[in-house]
Amino acid sequence: MSYTANPERYDKMEYRRCGKSGLKLPAVSLGLWHNFGHIDNFENARNILRLAFDNGITHFDLANNYGPPPGSAEENFGKIFKDDFKNYRDELIISSKAGWGMWPGPYGDWGSKKYLVASLDQSLKRMGLDYVDIFYHHRPDPETPLEETMTALDLIVRQGKALYVGISSYQSEEAANAIEILKQLGTPCLIHQPKYSMFVRWVEDANQPNKMSLLDVLEKEGVGCIPFSPLAQGLLTDKYLNGIPKDSRAASHRGNGAIEEEAITEENIIKVKKLNELAIKRGQTLAQMALAWILKDPRITSVLIGVSKPEQVTDSIKCINNYKFSDEELRQINEILK
Length: 338
Ligand SMILES: NC(=O)c1ccc[n+]([C@@H]2O[C@H](COP(=O)([O-])OP(=O)(O)OC[C@H]3O[C@@H](n4cnc5c(N)ncnc54)[C@H](OP(=O)(O)O)[C@@H]3O)[C@@H](O)[C@H]2O)c1
Description:
The chain contains 11 helices and 10 strands. The chain has 338 residues and is α/β, with parallel strands linked by helices. The strands form 2 sheets. Strands 9-8-7-6-5-4-3-10 form an 8-stranded parallel β-sheet. Strands 1-2 form a two-stranded antiparallel ribbon. The chain starts with 14 loop residues before the first strand and ends with a helix. Bound molecules: NADP nicotinamide-adenine-dinucleotide phosphate.
């Protein structure tokens, strides 16, 4: 059936300015790392994307290697985009990335200009797009000069293949260097995509060589921040409280970095149970509280969620209804996470 977007889609979502740029992103964005590949149910993927957009989620995040198999999330997204979202292109922020291994040989991985330019061309073909809104370098490359990688991002923008560029998983000092090079090239870094959740808090850590946390660097430079895996891949929800459900990511053995059963440890579940009790006291699900806990910081532009079912979109976006925490609640959370 053809799709017409919900006319009330912009009524409830909050849009936050991305650093000091002109661009605003929804407080909750949707990533297609898992559940959108050829091994997944195509109609489920379509339903998730429609529901997300109907609720004001204007930003979909992809990468060359999302699937499995690699590339298939972009292919499926391309099909759904053509059927459902073509008329809404100017209402959407679509991102892709390159930086992890994508094709054999020396030019299909890391951060050379050769790899980034070729990879984005492939991504655009798979998605049937003329341009992406944001193109990221997916992870730092210790061997390629940072100048080359950043010059490739600058080139891609000048070619009109991306409107903005970002970096992902760069530590604080290397992020500061990349941001400086991009500034000199005249293509400011729009956004950084780090892993950040109640369980993974390195972005707050000021013990980096430059004595600034990543969040401090981004604030100082006016760069946005969109944390990935904010639910620790599902661990920070109520799904693993009583064992590992068959339809969960941990049980699916998807590979490609997906959470494994070994991560669902007794120690983690004790913490999750305590967090869940606190969430109930706040009148939230644990997923909502874990996302709200990230959104409480004004340096955060958007939380980048993944979902396997449409109901998870409906549940998770309610995090924007309450992301204020009392000092006592924050103290209790820190105590639980110790
Ligand atoms: N830049 C990078 O290097 C990088 C790396 C990883 C991810 N990312 C980006 O970040 C996005 C999100 O990552 P992620 O999928 O790991 O995020 P996540 O939000 O931490 O985990 C998503 C999983 O949590 C569970 N879930 C979500 N909402 C739920 C709810 N309301 N109730 C119960 N369970 C819920 C689902 O697990 P089940 O599947 O078990 O139902 C879902 O698949 C990716 O799609 C990608 O765009 C970027």
